[in-house]
Amino acid sequence: MSLAIFDLDNTLLSIDSDHAWGEFLLEQGAVDPVAYREANERFMADYNAGTLDMAAFLEMALKPLADNSPEQLSAWHQQFMVSKIEPNILPKAEELLARHRTKGDTLLIITATNRFITAPIAERLGVDHLIAVNPEVKNGRYTGRVSGIPSYREGKVTRLEKWLEDQDQTMEGAWFYSDSHNDLPLLEIVEHPVAVDPDDTLREIAKERQWRIMSLRD
């Protein structure tokens, strides 16, 4: 039995859930239709290029959580799951999760997308363990700020190390599945790194290092 770690966006899902949530908010008329869309697209491009300013992105991404009531956010998220997430859960991703589950492996999703968006997705996928960006909550409402270290790039490794300590788990025989070169810090420390429908940069590195390359979309 080993630890099986999965990136979420463009790995288990065929979309980026953070970007899709932004699009959903635009459709609801919940954010400025011009400025928010421009920022959402720009930050997505920066992420793909490996140049994302995470602090600036989170300032934008977490503001709608602070601007709306928990009740409204919950209602929106239920709609979001139906309209954006469910159609983009990859059947082969669910099969991969099931294979690791059958082996008795511990399943963990680690994502740079915030927990408000991703916790219901992890639950839907039947994955009990989730490391995500934690939005700060005070007096029952989101503040628009981040709590702790964002699980992005090297931050994924830092957060994982703390999780391993808390869970009394080890990295022995661990797997990590990801599509993105942003996840190289974590891919480099697992015994079984797997590039899943990788971006061009990760594909070249995976070929050079003879990492497994697979698709969940074929």
TrEMBL record:
The lineage of its organism: Bacteria, Pseudomonadati, Pseudomonadota, Gammaproteobacteria, Oceanospirillales. Keywords: Hydrolase, Magnesium, Metal-binding. The keyword Metal-binding applies. InterPro entries: HAD-like_SerB (IPR050582), HAD-like_sf (IPR036412), HAD_hydro_SerB1 (IPR006385), HAD_sf (IPR023214). It holds the Pfam family HAD. This is Haloacid dehalogenase. The keyword Hydrolase applies.
